[in-house]
Design goal:
Elements: E1 26-27, H1 31-39, E2 44-49, H2 60-67, E3 72-77, H3 83-89, E4 97-102, E5 105-111, H4 114-133, E6 155-157, H5 161-168, E7 174-179, H6 184-199, E8 205-210, H7 215-220, E9 228-233, E10 236-242, H8 246-259, E11 319-320, H9 324-331, E12 337-342, H10 347-362, E13 368-373, H11 378-383, E14 391-396, E15 399-405, H12 409-417
Helix pairs in contact: 6-8
C-alpha cells in the first residue's frame, strides 16, 4: 500500500467535537475536547488524517471502530479547526498516523501501516474489554483551588491585546501567564503564581490569559504550549519561561522586583570656580599694510556628473499563484511551466524549495516556475488531483505532460531539466 508522504507540521492544534456515532469514530477539532476525551478513555487511538491524503481514505479505521466498541476511536483532520496545532503538539510527521493511548499517555504509534494498525488494535482489545467490564475508574483529578481574579485581586485577568498593552506600557514590570483550564501543569503552578502575585503586588503586575478564551492573544505572542510565562519591563519583552518551572519563575520575579529598586543617583554639580580678573593689555598699533601685486587666478570649474541610470527592476523568476485564472495564464503559454504544490508546514517541501528556486533563477527564460500553497488555494489542488505534497506538475501548451511527487533530490532536477529546451 502506498503511503502519501506529507507533512512536518510546524504548528499546535485543537479540535471541536462532532456528534459521536455509536458505531464509528469521533471527529475532534479542538485541543480541549481531545484532552477531555482522552481523560475519560482507558484505551483510545487517534487517527491523524488530511483530505488530500490518498492512503487516509482507507475504510479500515472505521471498520475497526465498529468492531471494537470498548476502544475510543478518534479522528483529527489537520485541515479542520485546531487539527494542525494538535498534530504539531504530537509531532506528527506524516499522515495517516495512528497514536494509541492509555488515558492521556501515548503507548504506541503506527505510521501509514494498516496491517500494523490491525495488529495493535487486536492487542489492545482484550484489555479494553476487561476495563469496560469492571468499569475502571477515571484517573483521579488533582484538587485545585479556583481563584477568580477581581479588580482588586493580585492577579488580573486579561482577554484582549489592548488591555494587556495598557499594563505593559505602564512602566511597571509585568508577568503574563498563558494557561488553559484543561492543562494539568497549569493547575500545578497556579498556587505558586498566586503567592508570588500576593508577595510582589506592589512592584510587579501579575496577569493571566486563558489560551482558549483569548486564543488570538496567545497566537500573537507565539505561545506554543501551556503554561507559558512572558515578562515585560519598561514596555519591552524581557523573558519567556515555558512549562511549570517554579524555581525559574520565582527567581525571575525577584529580578524584576529588584529592577524597580535601582534608581539612578543624580550627580551633584559643583559650582564652577570664578575666573581670575584679566589684566588689561594694550594692543600694539597696527602697521600700515603693504600693497602687493595681485594676480588673476583661474579656478577650474568641475563639470557636474550625470547620475548613473537606475538599473531596470529584475523580472521575478519565481511566482506565487492563488487562483486558477492566474495559473492558466502561464500553463497556456508555449513555454513549459513547472507548478509546485506545497504547504508551509510540510517538511519535505522545505527540502525541495531551494532546488526549485535555484532552477527558477537559472532557467527563467526557458520555463515558468510557479508555486501554489495548498492552504491558500485548496480548490486548485483538488482540481488537479493533488493528494500528497510536495507535488510538481509540468505543463506545455495548457496540457499536463509530467508530474513529480515526493522528495528525490537525485532525480528531481534532472526530471525538470528534461522539459527545458
Amino acid at each position: 500500500m502506498k503511503f502519501s508522504r506529507l507533512l512536518f507540521l510546524p504548528l499546535i492544534l485543537s479540535i471541536s467535537l462532532h456528534s459521536k456515532q455509536m458505531d464509528g469514530p469521533e471527529l475532534i477539532t479542538t485541543q480541549s475536547v481531545l484532552d477531555e476525551t482522552l481523560k475519560k478513555s482507558p484505551y483510545s487511538v487517534i487517527k491523524f488524517t488530511a483530505p488530500w491524503c490518498g492512503a487516509c481514505k482507507s475504510p479500515i479505521f472505521n471498520e475497526l471502530a465498529k468492531d471494537n466498541a470498548d476502544i475510543t476511536f478518534i479522528i483529527v483532520d489537520i485541515s479542520k479547526g485546531e487539527g494542525a496545532k494538535i498534530a504539531k503538539k504530537y509531532k506528527v510527521g506524516g499522515v495517516p498516523t495512528f497514536a494509541f493511548h492509555d488515558y492521556e499517555q501515548e503507548t504506541k504509534r503506527v505510521v501509514g501501516d494498516y496491517p500494523a494498525l490491525k495488529s495493535q488494535v487486536a492487542v489492545v482489545a482484550p484489555k479494553a474489554k476487561k476495563a469496560a467490564e469492571v468499569k475502571a475508574p477515571e484517573p483521579e483529578q488533582p484538587t485545585t483551588i479556583t481563584m477568580e481574579a477581581t479588580a482588586e485581586g493580585p492577579v488580573k485577568t486579561v482577554t484582549s491585546h489592548d488591555e494587556l498593552n495598557k499594563h505593559i506600557k505602564s512602566g511597571k514590570p509585568v508577568i503574563v501567564k498563558f494557561y488553559t483550564n484543561w492543562c494539568g501543569y497549569c493547575k500545578k503552578i497556579k498556587p505558586a503564581f498566586d503567592k508570588l502575585a500576593s508577595d510582589f503586588e506592589e512592584s510587579v503586575t501579575f496577569i493571566e490569559v486563558d489560551g482558549d478564551k483569548a486564543a488570538e492573544l496567545a497566537d500573537k505572542f507565539q505561545v506554543q504550549g501551556f503554561p507559558t510565562f512572558i515578562s515585560f519591563n519598561k514596555g519591552k519583552q524581557v523573558k519567556e519561561i515555558s512549562g511549570a518551572d517554579k524555581p525559574q519563575l520565582e527567581s525571575h520575579t525577584q529580578e524584576l522586583h529588584e529592577s524597580t529598586l535601582k534608581k539612578p543617583v543624580k550627580a551633584v554639580k559643583k559650582p564652577a570656580p570664578k575666573p581670575a580678573p584679566k589684566k588689561k593689555v594694550e594692543a600694539p598699533a597696527p602697521k600700515p599694510a603693504e600693497k602687493k601685486a595681485t594676480k588673476k587666478i583661474k579656478i577650474p570649474v568641475k563639470e557636474k556628473k550625470k547620475p548613473a541610470p537606475k538599473p531596470a527592476p529584475k523580472k521575478p523568476t519565481h511566482i506565487e499563484v492563488t487562483t486558477i485564472e492566474e495559473l492558466n495564464k502561464y500553463t497556456g503559454q508555449g513555454k513549459p511551466t513547472a507548478v509546485k504544490f506545497y504547504a508551509s508546514w510540510c517538511g519535505p517541501c522545505q527540502v525541495v524549495k531551494p532546488i526549485f528556486e535555484s532552477l527558477s533563477k537559472e532557467y527563467s527564460d526557458d520555463m515558468n516556475f510557479i508555486s501554489i500553497n495548498i492552504d491558500d488555494a485548496r480548490d486548485i489542488a483538488q482540481q488537479y488531483g493533488v493528494h500528497s505534497i510536495p507535488h510538481i506538475k509540468i505543463f506545455k501548451g495548457g496540457k499536463e505532460v509530467d508530474k513529480i511527487t515526493g522528495v528525490s533530490t537525485d532525480t528531481f532536477e534532472k526530471q525538470i531539466k528534461r522539459h527545458i529546451k
